[in-house]
Amino acid sequence: MTYNANTRIFHIDPINPDSEAITLAGDVIRKGGLVAFPTETVYGLGANALDSEALNRIYLAKARPSSDPIIAHIFDDEQLNALAIDIPEMAYRLSGFFWPGALTLVLKRAPDVPDNIATGLDTIAIRMPSHPIARALIQSAGVPIAAPSANTFTRPSATTANHVLEDLDGRVDIILDGGATTIGLESTVVDLTQGESIVLRPGGITMEHLREIVPDIQLSPRYLKMDNQQASSSPGQMVKHYSPNAEIMLFTGETDAVIAHMQKIAFGLKEAGKRVGVLGADEDYRYFADDTDVKTLGSRDELDAISHSLFAGMRMLDGLQVDVILVRDFGRKGLGAALWDRLLRAAEGKVIAVE
Ligand code: TXA
Ligand code: MG
After folding, report:
1. What are the residue ranges spanned by the domains of the chain?
2. Of the bound ligands, which one is closest to the alpha carbon of residue 307?
3. Atom 7 in ligand 1: residue holding the nearest Cα
4. Superfamily of domain covering 247-353
């Protein structure tokens, strides 16, 4: 296996990404190399979606099992039509509302698109990102860009260029540093190949927002059961994912009771000699003692702030080498559904329900 000895980092103005670095990075993509770049959700690890060898490099760099399919990022409808066939009316309705943006559509794959983008499935996941750097890069490359999140497999997704470097230094040719991503959680994945619209992964576009356009859209039954240890309709959706090195303890229940229980558990863990971290809302801070590493993510009513900071918070507490991270449920409304999904996976499906 060959890794790139040197990873080059370029700082790019995220508002006006007009630069030589974009041209260079587009060239690297076209020639089969790897470029990490910001999107509005998280950083992606990009390669030419039409080059099966370049796609293999993504799996190698991420240490990702080749059973986990990758999203193709497009610049315009022309690229959509080159990647997918039998595109249903619903795809145009949804993309009309949400593209460019944090929505990924699973469609039937065109036969000449390399099948290792979708691990041999006859489908392909497609998204048109809105981030100006992502758009400029795809345009400059002149090909659709396949990109999973730019973290090593099972680690929290990267929301800054530094996170990418932590995981992928020496494994990617170029990192385009456009600062922290805004949404901080990955896109919502909607499968349109089953006849109905099914959400395979909740994400940056909320269920409530989707229902305004598609009232009968469903959350994947497998997702609801959270029985994802086995193969599922969205391969790569096994529970362990987005995990920091520390053990995550996830608490759910009425907020005051949850906080009280977290205080008790934190105290017990520290008595046992553990270093304890807490991920919570700003309002939770005062309930924990000085010898607890508390990372607050935002006000409890501002789920967009909490989403923005979640993965960075996990990585920050990991950096402090805490043994355990206590984190609470932030509800299921709006971005709460995606937050809950990521937390549940980070906790490997184990939940502490507080009465
Ligand atoms: O926001 C995002 O979606 C980010 C940025 C970089 O665009 N990308 C991302 O990629 O999160 P990744 O590889 O970490 O997650 C891709 C998700 C997985 O849940 C995968 O199972 C699903 O998309 N997926 C990809 N192709 C699929 C397909 N053909 N059928 C069903 N699910 C698919
Ligand atoms: Mg990922």
Report:
1. 8-219, 247-353
2. 1
3. 44
4. Threonylcarbamoyl-AMP synthase, C-terminal domain (3.40.50.11030)
CATH homologous superfamily, domain 8-219: DHBP synthase (3.90.870.10)
Task: Give yes or no for residue 236 CB within 6 A of ligand 1.
Answer: yes
- Which residue has a Cα nearest atom 13 of ligand 1? 148
Token pair, residue 61, equals 């760099």
* CA 70 to centroid of ligand 1, rounded, Å: 5
Q: What gap in Å lies between CA 337 and CA 314, rounded to an integer? A: 18
239 Cβ neighbours under 8 A, 6+ residues apart: 226, 228, 229, 344, 345, 348, 349
Peptide bond into 100 cis (omega under 30): yes
Rounded-to-integer distance, Cα 50 and Cα 32, Å: 10
Which residues make Cβ contacts (< 8 Å) with residue 164, sequence separation at least 6?
36, 43, 45, 150, 151, 158, 172, 175
Q: Which two tokens stand for residue 146?
A: 């396949």
61 Cα–ligand 2 center, Å: 13
pTM for this predicted structure:
0.94
3-state helix, strand, coil in the chain (%, to 5): 35, 20, 45
Q: Say how many CA atoms lie within 13 Å of 181 toward its Cβ.
A: 38
Tokens of residue 114, six digits? 């390399």
Instruction: For residue 192, give both structure tokens.
Output: 């349109």
Q: Which amino acid residue places its CA nearest to atom 24 of ligand 1?
A: 69
Residue 200 Cβ contacting ligand 1 at under 6 Å: yes
Per-residue pLDDT of the chain (355 residues; tens, 9 = 90+): 445 569 999 999 999 998 899 999 999 999 999 999 999 999 999 999 999 999 999 999 998 777 789 999 999 999 999 999 999 999 999 999 999 999 999 999 999 999 999 998 999 999 999 999 999 999 999 999 999 999 998 899 999 999 999 999 999 999 999 999 999 999 999 999 999 999 999 999 999 999 999 999 999 976 655 533 333 344 444 456 677 789 999 999 999 999 999 999 999 999 999 999 999 999 999 999 889 999 999 999 999 999 999 999 999 999 999 999 999 999 999 999 999 999 999 998 889 999 8
Q: Which ligand is nearest to the CA of 234?
A: 1
Question: For residue 269, how far is its CA from the centre of ligand 2 (angstroms)?
Answer: 31
